[in-house]
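Action item from last meeting closed. Structure (157 res):
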């Protein structure tokens, strides 16, 4: 099964840009976190509910490839999908793309087969399910309902 992309739209605020007038490279990580949270919420797995149940999902690693710059007031679509999962680990892929004003105003919080727009940055983040003591936990045993969501919407490498 190939996972589909979740689209979250974001208009670049002035605070995200640097002296050169482009989005500072570190801000993309924040964008991806926001999009990951919205993607999980879309599938019925709100981070707040996961944490209330005693689970955390810390980041183990981030990879980012910068293709071109975004600037103040650009319309951005951030596409997110689960690209790999196991009972303990989870990997997300992201693409930040410039989109038209019209597309920005008519698409948001939707599922798409393929991202559209001009690719700016692509990224992956790797995570591990842990309990409140930061000990790894096997999600299929401790929260089988959450694991079924991953099985339904993620893809396995």
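Sequence:
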């Amino acid at each position: 099964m190939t996972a589909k992309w979740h689209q979250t739209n974001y208009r670049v605020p002035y605070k995200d840009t640097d002296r050169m007038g482009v989005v500072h490279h570190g801000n993309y990580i924040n964008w991806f976190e926001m999009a990951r949270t919205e993607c999980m919420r879309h599938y019925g797995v709100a981070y707040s509910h996961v944490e209330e149940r005693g689970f955390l999902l810390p980041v183990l690693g981030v990879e980012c490839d910068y293709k071109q710059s975004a600037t103040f007031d650009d319309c951005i679509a951030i596409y997110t999908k689960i690209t790999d999962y196991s009972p303990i680990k989870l990997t997300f892929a992201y693409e930040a793309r410039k989109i038209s004003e019209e597309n920005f105003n008519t698409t948001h919080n939707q599922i798409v087969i393929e991202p559209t727009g001009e690719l700016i940055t692509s990224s992956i983040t790797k995570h591990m399910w842990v309990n409140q003591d930061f000990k790894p936990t096997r999600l299929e045993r401790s929260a089988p309902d959450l694991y079924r969501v991953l099985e339904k919407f993620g893809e396995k490498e």
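Note appended to the action item: The chain has five helices and six strands.
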